[in-house]
């Protein structure tokens, strides 16, 4: 098991060198107002989260939304300074990239890729197959099985081929199971059948044999019916040489409801025994689930959840990345549900919160 996981980790780490070379070869233009990664101002002498992670050969990342990225220099600076992994939050989803059957729109995704190369940031591609963010031409099309397979294969291979050698990790299939372990009743499952998951992995691997391919889902970090089903799928895939390399744990959690480190450990170890990596891919920690807590109490509880999760991850060699679903509280999608929500490591001015310090302290151990 150790040699399999070690080999996968080595594949992932090579992308730091590749993105650095892309920048040196003049493939990108420096962003105005953004300091080089790791550069600190006179007031910022403490090591950043990114610097601490890189000392360990580990990845800390954030989902990056193109709208604030394109308009807010402080947002771009925060990404470059604090993170060495980037996930496009929306701009690589099917609807954004492939809005019409015969038309792709790569502009925003390409700009995020250029920024990542300039700042030596590894990219997680998200996501090739999902039941949401689909254009009408897919959802409302009258497809038979072979027709929809052709649509899906063409989409996957066009996108993956475009970024071959540039994207380290792909979330190939996202959220294919319900919480009870049954298949989600989406268009891919209805028309193609459950084999669409395996086919997606095989097609992605054909397009870029060096990319690491992940299945990504929520409420699958502990030991549950759903995580058992995902484990069984992964075990079956590994036994039949279906090219799957890891499982993504989204971890959209609350301070009052999250997986225990012991349950995470069990799941990490059984996936590691299959030779699979795990990455925490979309973490945020809602603090307003307990209305009785004071603001300081909420930040303390949030810090404890983040720190405990990262500590559990770092104890197992096959846990290779820790990504939050957003850069800072200013632009989190959760504000659409609660304008006072503050789920991330950086505040609305992109200043480190207690949770940021807590995860930095874990990385120092």
Automatic annotation (TrEMBL):
<keyword id="KW-0378">Hydrolase</keyword>
<keyword id="KW-0326">Glycosidase</keyword>
<keyword id="KW-0858">Xylan degradation</keyword>
<comment type="similarity">
    <text>Belongs to the glycosyl hydrolase 10 (cellulase F) family.</text>
</comment>
<feature type="domain" description="GH10">
    <location>
        <begin position="43"/>
        <end position="362"/>
    </location>
</feature>
<protein>
    <recommendedName>
        <fullName>endo-1,4-beta-xylanase</fullName>
        <ecNumber>3.2.1.8</ecNumber>
    </recommendedName>
</protein>
<dbReference type="Pfam" id="PF00331">
    <property type="entry name" value="Glyco_hydro_10"/>
</dbReference>
<dbReference type="GO" id="GO:0031176">
    <property type="term" value="F:endo-1,4-beta-xylanase activity"/>
</dbReference>
<dbReference type="InterPro" id="IPR001000">
    <property type="entry name" value="GH10_dom"/>
</dbReference>
<feature type="signal peptide">
    <location>
        <begin position="1"/>
        <end position="24"/>
    </location>
</feature>
<dbReference type="GO" id="GO:0045493">
    <property type="term" value="P:xylan catabolic process"/>
</dbReference>
<keyword id="KW-0624">Polysaccharide degradation</keyword>
<dbReference type="InterPro" id="IPR044846">
    <property type="entry name" value="GH10"/>
</dbReference>
<keyword id="KW-0732">Signal</keyword>
<keyword id="KW-0119">Carbohydrate metabolism</keyword>
